[in-house]
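Quick one before lunch.
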Amino acid sequence: MAHTLRTPTDRTCERCGRIEVWDGDAGGWRVAAGADESDDRAVGSPYCIHEWDINGSFAPFEDAGTDAAEG
Ligand SMILES: [Zn+2]
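Model of the zinc ion complex:
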């Protein structure tokens, strides 16, 4: 079985409250603002050094450190 690279689907900045969602088609993050362009609740601050709070269940790899025998 191939390793599954888990990807978070959304992340929130702990500093400014910016919310982004993963856009698989674009291969990048995009702001999770509402359909209305004037709705900038989730945009946060452009000057913020974002401190992302990714979903707690997120782990970069399925079995980090336990796949030494693979090959
Ligand atoms: Zn931020």
